[in-house]
Amino acid sequence: MTIRLGGMFFGLALVGVLLLWSFLPDTLKYSTPEKSPYYAFHEDKLPPAGGFSFDGLGGKWDNQQLQRGYQVYKEVCRSCHSLKYVAFRNLEELGYSEAEVRAEAASWEVPGLDEYGEATLRPAEPTDYFPSPYPNEIAARASNNNALPPDLSLITKARPDGSNYVYSLMQGYVEPTEEDLAEAKELGGGVEWETPVGLYFNEHFYNANIAMPPQLYPDLITYADGTEATTEQMAQDVAAFLTWTAEPTLVLRKQTGWYVVAFLLFATFLGFLSYKEIWANKKPKKKG
Amino acid sequence: MSFAWANQYEPKSDFTKWIDEKLPLPRLIYNAVGAGYPVPRNLNYMWNFGFLAGLFLVIQIITGVVLAMHYAADTSVAFGSVEHIMRNVNYGWMLRYAHANGASFFFIVIYLHIFRGFYYSSYKAPREMIWLLGVVIFLLMMATAFMGYVLPWGQMSFWGAKVITGLFGAIPIIGEPLQVWLVGGYAPNGATLNRFFSLHFLLPFVILGVVILHIWALHIPGSSNPTGVEVKSESDTVPFHPYYVAKDGWFLGLVVAIYAGFVFFAPNALGHPDNYIEANPLSTPAEIVPEWYFLPFYAILRAFTGDLVIPLTGIVLVPAKLLGVIAMFGSILVWFFLPWLDKSPIRSGSYRPLFQKFFWVLVVTMGVLTFCGGAPAEQPYILISQIATAYYFLHFLVILPIVSQIEVPKPLPFSITEAVLGKDGEEPKPISAAPPPQSGGGDLPGGALQPAE
Questions:
Q1: Residue range of the domain that includes A184
Q2: In a domain, A26, yes or no
Q3: What is the pTM assigned to this prediction?
Q4: Which of B219, B241, B410, B429 is catalytic?
Q5: How far is B187 from chain A (nearest CA, A)?
Q6: Is residue A268 situated within a structural domain?
Q7: What ipTM describes this predicted complex?
Q8: For an engineered disulfide with A162, which of A136, A156, B221, B353 has Cβ 3.0 to 4.6 Å away?
Q9: Does B300 contact A at CB distance below 8 Å?
Q10: Domains, chain B, ranges and CATH?
Q11: pLDDT digit string, tens, across residues B152-161
C-alpha cells in the first residue's frame, strides 16, 4: 500500500512538473525550427539511370566499371584523397591478374627505408596499402585552403545512401536557380546567398558550400576500355569503385545470404511440419 | 520444484547411470528444458521470446568472443582493427554484421518479452522474483550494448560515450569527480576504451549468470499462461520436450531467417553512417543519436528542458539535466515496483477490459517516444515527448494502481484445459468464444481429457 501511495505521489509530481512546462504559455510560444538558408538548395540524391549493378538482392559487381572507377581514382581523386584501408593486392578482385597488380603497384611510390636506413620512397608491392598523398593532416590542410580531404575507403558507408551520394555530388556543381536563391534569401532573413571565397556551390553537399573544386569534365581522362568519358560516366564509375572500396565483400555477402536464408526457411518449414505433427493430438478438434 | 505429475528422469545406460550418480547434470537439463518440465498447454507465440532471447545471448557471446580475437582496444588502431576484421579476417564481415545486428535483434525479442510480461502481468505473485531478475538482465543488457557501441571508435561511438558518461556529471556534488573516475579522464579516451572493452567482455557472462537465476526462479512456480489461471491438473500441461521444443524450434527458424535477412542484405540499416567515420574529438557530428533501442529512454531524458524552481524565487531546486537523468533511470527502475503497483488479482490482460485499453496506449506511447528520441531536439518533438513521458509515468504509477481497484474483470475460464478444449471437453470451442461462467465447472478428472494415443 505504501509503495502504491508513494508511487502515485512520485508519479503525479513528475507528471505535474512536465505538464506545467508543456503548457505554460511561454513554452507553447515556440517558433518553428529555424532553418539555415542552405535548406533552399536541398536536392534528393538520385541514382544513375538504371541504378548500379550491385543494387538489389542479386546485385553483382561490374568489373569493367570498377576498373574504370579505379582509373578515375588514380588519375583524379588520388592527388588529394587517401584510400588507406585498401591494399594493391585487393585490386585482383577487380579482375586484374597477379602480374598486372604487381605492375600497377610498382607504378606507385610508398614510404620506405633505403640501405642506410634513411627514409625514402620505394615502388609499392601488392601487399602495400594505398599511400596517402600527404605526409600528415597539417600538410593536407595547408595544401587545401585548410580543408581536410577525407579518406575515401569508407566514404560510401559513411554517408547516407552513399553510392548515390558520391554519384550526385560529383555532378552537383551547378548554378543555383533563381527560386532557390530567393528561398535562401528568405530563410537567411533577407541576406543574399553568397558562396564564400574558396568554397564552391554544390547542391548535394549538406550546406551547399564544399571545399572541393569541381573535378570532372568531359573527356578529362581517356578510359583504357574506350568508353566515352562523360562527366556522368566518370561519376558513376567512381561511385561504383568507392562502393567496392567501402565494402569489398558486398556481393559475396548478398550471395551468401541467399543460401543462408534459403536453408533457414527450409529448416523452418521442416520444423513447422514436426511441430504440427507433435501437437496434432493436443489441439481442439475442429467440429464437423 | 515441479508438478507431481512431471516425468521423472530415468538413466538407461550404465554410462548415464554412472553420470547421474556423480553429477546429475543430464537430470538437471531434463527437468529444466526437457520432458521433466510440465508447461501450460495453451501458451501462444508471445511465449517464444524468452527462448529466443537466450538464443541471441548465445549468438552474441560466440560472435563476440571471436571478434575479440581480432579487435584491438587502442584509440589509435581500434577503428582500423574493425576494418581489418571486415576486410582481411576470413568471414570477419559476417561475424561483425552478425554481432551488430544480433544486438538489435536481442533488443527486439527482449522488448517483445517485456511487453508480453506487461500484458499478461507476468510480474504478479508468485512470479515477482522472475520479473525482478528480468529487469536486472535488461539493465545489464543496456550497459553492455552501450559499451559495445563505443568499441569501433567511430564518431557516434565517441560522442555517444561522451553524452552518456556526461549524465553522471548531473549528480549533485559527487557528479563531476564520479564522471572523471568512470571515464578515466575528462572526455572518452584510451583508458575509457580499454575499460569498456574489458567490461563489454565481462558483462555478457554476468547476464548469463542472471539468466540462469531467472530460469531457476521460473521453475519454482512454472510458466505463466495466456489465461492467467494457474495450472490445476495434469491435463493443463504438456512436457516441455517435445511440445515446446518443437514450437520454439520452428519459430526460432523463422526469426533467425529474418535476422539473416538483415545481416546479409541490409547490415547497416539499423546503424548510423557517422560511425564509419573515425572518432574525432574535435569535430562534433550534426546530431548525436543513440542506437534505436535506446531512443525511448533518450526521449525521456531530453523531455526535461527546464529547471525545477521554487515559484517566484528563482531558486533552482533540481536542474533540468538532473531531472532528465532521474526520469530516464526512473523509467526503468519503476518496473521493479510493478508487482506491487498493479494489485488486480487477474493476471491476463485478455480478461481486463480497462487495463487492456491502457496497455495499448502504453505501446503507442513507447512508439512515439522512440520516434521523438530519433528526431532533432526541437519543437514540436520536445512537446510531444514531454506529453508521452508524462503518460509513461502516469501509466505505471497512477493508472495501473487505480485501474486494478475499479476494474470489473471478465469471467475467467475454470482451467487451462477448459480454455483450450471447451467446457465439457467434447464440444470444443475456439478460445475467443464467450468465456464460460466461472462457477459450476466442477472437478475435471485429471486424465479425462488426455487424447487417445
A1: 37-86+133-252
A2: no
A3: 0.89
A4: B219
A5: 22
A6: no
A7: 0.89
A8: A156
A9: no
A10: 34-230+240-288 (1.20.810.10), 292-419 (no CATH)
A11: 999 999 999 9
